[in-house]
Amino acid sequence: MTGTDSELLEERYGLVSERIREIGREQAFTKPLSSYFSYCASFLEMLFGILDRTLSGATKDMDTSALSAENHRLYEDITGSAYDNSFTNPGYIVPLFEKAGITNAKELARYLSFLLVQIRGLIPYAYEGNKEILTIHAELFAEVCSLFRFCAMDGTYPEPSAVSDILYWFISDYCDTIIPDSISAKTDPANDFYLRIINDEDLGDERFLYLSGEYVTDNERQLARFIASLPEETIDRMADTFTEGYRKGFVAAGKPLDKKTSVNVRYSLGFERVIRKAVANFSAMGLDTIIYRTGSLLLTSSGTSKIGFYGAVANRQYDYDHKDDIAMFLDADLVTRRIEVLRDAYEKNRDLARGHAGPAVMEVFGEDPFTPLVKDTAAAHNDRTRKLSIDYASRASMVVNSYIPPEERSFTIISFPTPEIGNDFEEIFDKTIELNTLDYEKYQKIQQHIIDALDKAGSVHIKGKGDNETDLTVSLCELPDPDHQTHFENCVADVNIPVGEVFTSPRLTGTSGLLHVSKVYLKGLLFVDLKIRFKDGMVSDYSCGNFDDEEAGRQFIKDNILYKRATLPMGEFAIGTNTTAYRMARDYDIEGRLPILIAEKTGPHFAIGDTCYAHEEDVKVYNPDGKEIISRENEISAKRKENEKEAYFQCHTDITIAFDELLYIKAISSDKEIPIIEDGRFVLDGTTDLNIPLE
To answer: Same domain for 239 and 205?
Structure first.
C-alpha cells in the first residue's frame, strides 16, 4: 500500500468509525430494526477497539482474564441458547420481522442476517490488524443502514432488490481486496501472525489461546493444559510422526521435495506446542511454514468445513444455517469476476505458489455427533445457483492447479482426540499416539497378501450381515501385465496416518448394488441408516433415517454427500486393515466420534466423488514391491483429456462399513471366489494377525 493509499485508508477509517458510533446512538428506527442496527454498530465498535489495540501493540498489556472476558463477549450471541434469539439465526429474525409487519420481511431479514454474519467474520481480521478489511465492511454496514433510515423517514422499508444490489456490488467490487488477501495468506510465509504466536509466546500460559481471536472453550483450555503437561519426548514423537509422514509422501510418489519452499500447516487451537516442534522439523527440510485461518467471510469460507487454523466451533447450527448464503447473490457474472480475481491473485504470487509443497493437516476428533435443523428460512440454492456453484468450484480448482500443480505437491493428515471425547480422553489420546505409530513394515507385508488376491479378480463382492443390507459388486479394470502391474495401492503411514488400507479406483461399468451403514460421521455431520444405491458406478438412489420426512433426508444427502449434484461416481473402493483402531473405537464407545481418517481404516470403505488420483492420473505410481498401480482413473476422470470440467467434482467422501456388519468380502474371478473377510474376520492366508485386536 502506497503512502497516499495509506492516508486515504486512515481517512476512511476515521469517518466510518464516527458514523458507526452515531448509528449506535441514533433513534431512527422502531423495533426490531432499532435493536438490529444498534447491535451491529456496537459489535463493530468492539472490533474497532480490538483493531486499534492490536495496531498500537497494547494487547501485550492485557492479562488472561481480560482476554478471556473479551472472547466471551465476541461469541456470546451465537453460543448455546443465545442463538435462539440471535439476529444471525434465520429461524429467529425472519419470523421476528414478519411479526413486526415489515414489508418483504423474509427477504430483508435474510439479507440483514447475512450482513451481521459478515460483520462477525471480521473478528480474526481485527486481531491481525487488518484495517482495510474492517473499513470496507463498516462502510457496507453504514450504506445499508442509510438505505433503511432514508425509507424510515417515509414510514416505509427498502425494496429487497435495493438491499441485494448494495450487497451484491460490494461482494463483486471488493473481490479484488478480499480474495488477494486470502491468497497472500495461503502462499506467502511473510504473513506470520499465527506463526509468531506459536514460536514467541509462552505456551505454558493459557493467555496465548486468546491472541488469535478464535473462540475458546473449556475444551481448548483443557487441551492446552494437557499438551503442556506432556514430556518432551512425547511431543517429539507426535511431531516427528507428522512431519516424517509428509516427507515420506514425497519419496513414495517420487516427487522432488527439495524444489519446494513452503508447507501449509493446518490445525486447531490448543496443539501449539506440537506445532512448534513440527515447524522446526519442516524448517530442517528447507520448508517455511505457512499458517492461515479458516475462512470467515463469504468469499473465503468453505461452508461447514474448517480448512486452515481454527478454534472452537461456536455453533455448528450457525455454520449450517449460513453455508449457502452465496445463493442469494450468485450469478454468472459473479462467478466470472471471482475466477478472474483468483487468477490475478495467484499470478501476483506465482513464484510463491509454485514453491508450495501442499498441506500438512492435524485433525481433531471427539465432538458430539451433530444433525442440523434444516430451516426453510435459511438461504438455499436453486437449480440455477447450484449449477453456478459447481461451475465456480470446478473453475477455481483448475486455477489453483495451474499455479500449484498436483503432480508436484503432496500432503499428510494425522488426527488426535480432544477433551470433548469424554472422561477417557487421556487414555484415548495415548492409544491414538500408539495407533499413529504402528509397525509400518508389518502392515505393508500383510496388505500385500490382500492385494495379490484382489489382483486375481475381476470384481469384489461385499455383503452385509444382520441388519446391514449392503449387497454391492465393485468392478475392477483389466490387468494386462500382472507381473508388473496392480490394481490396489498398499497404503501405510505416509500421507495418510495411521496405517491400514489397500485402495483402488473401481471401474464404473459393472459396479452396482446397495451400500448401507447404520451410522457414520461425515465432515462433522451424523448420518443414520444411510443407504446409497449404485448403478454402473454412479449414485442412482439414496436415503437416510436422520429425519421423519424422507425428502428432508434425501436433501441432506444431496447437500452434504453429493454436494448439490444429481449424482456422483464411486471414486474409490478400499479395504481398511487397522483392526487396532476398530478395537479402540469399540472399547471406548467412540465409533461415532472417529474422524474419517481413522474410521476409513476400520473396514471396507467407498468414496463418493473424485478418485484418489484426481488431477494426477498421468503420474506413474508404484507399490513397495515395484508394481505400477494402473487403476488411477475411471470412465469419468478419463474425460479430462477432452473437458476437464466434466472429469472432476472437487469432493471425495469416504463411507465405511464396520467389520461387525460384514458377512463377507470376496474377490471374484471367472473360475473361483477368494474370501478376504468372512463374518467380520480376515480369513486370507497371511492376514489373520489382523484378527488379534478383534478377539
So the answer is: yes
Residue 677, burial from CB neighbour count under 10 angstroms (0-12, 13-18, 19+) = buried
Q: Which of 132, 149, 173 is the last residue of a domain?
A: 173
Residues 252 and 140 in one domain: no
Domain count, the chain: 3
Phi, psi of 525, rounded to the nearest 5 degrees = -120, 140
For 198-212, b/e burial (b = at least 16 CB within 10 A) is beeeebeebbbbbbb
State the residue for C-alpha cell 486515504. 8
Do 488 and 503 contact (CB within 8 A), yes or no? yes
Structural domain that includes position 276? 188-413
Determine the Cα–Cα distance for residues 588 and 46; give it in Å rounded to an integer: 43
What element of type H or E holds 43?
helix 33-56
pLDDT tens-digit profile of 596-644? Answer: 889 889 999 999 999 999 988 988 889 989 999 999 999 999 999 888 8
> Considering 144, 173, 202, which residue would you say is the last residue of a domain?
173
pLDDT in tens, 165-188: 999 999 999 999 999 999 999 999
- Does residue 338 share a domain with residue 211? yes
pTM over 0.85: yes
Contacts of 606 (CB under 8 A, 6+ apart): 472, 474, 515, 570, 572, 573, 574, 654, 655
Alpha carbon separation from 22 to 27, 30, 177 (Å, rounded): 10, 16, 27
The model's pLDDT over 189-247, given as tens digits with 9 standing for 90+, comes to 999 999 999 999 999 999 999 999 999 999 999 999 999 999 999 999 999 999 999 99
Same domain, 206 and 257: yes
Contact (Cβ atoms closer than 8 angstroms) between residue 214 and residue 271? no
CA angle 193/198/202 to nearest 5° reads 120
Same domain, 134 and 215: no
Q: Look at residue 688 and tell me if it is in a domain.
A: no
